[in-house]
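DUF2190 family protein, pasting as requested.
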Amino acid sequence: MTAITEPRDTAWRDCILVPVPVAKGEVIPMGAIVCVNATGFAVNGKEDATLKYAGCADESVDNSAGEDGAQLINVRANKAFKWASDGTITQASLLSRAYIVDNQTLSAENGGTPAEGETPAGEATRSSAGKIILIESDGVWIY
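Structure tokens follow.
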């Protein structure tokens, strides 16, 4: 493809609702944390350091009987969302990363074990979900 020299009607998206193909066997309820797995398919948020945080499920999708990509889910993205906290998130966590525990819960901890003496730190078991922007008594907002 060569560079354009004339006006072009370029396709665009606002990236608020993003359609993502759903992983084989996955059932994602509306309002759940949605992640993308290593092969590029949507899954429920869960403790797995290989997942990438995508956003919030804007609808429920049942791909329990389908192959990878047989269903699409609209994921609400590029917004701040309020999720449950596992109790480790405190005011001192403000502007720090939150980590995914399950499809509605976040933690201040990545699931790895801290280094102790000559014992090295254990690897993280949780994926990052975004930055903590507000902590309330009934949940935590991330962006």
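Note for the archive: The CA atoms of residues 6 and 12 lie 18 Å apart.
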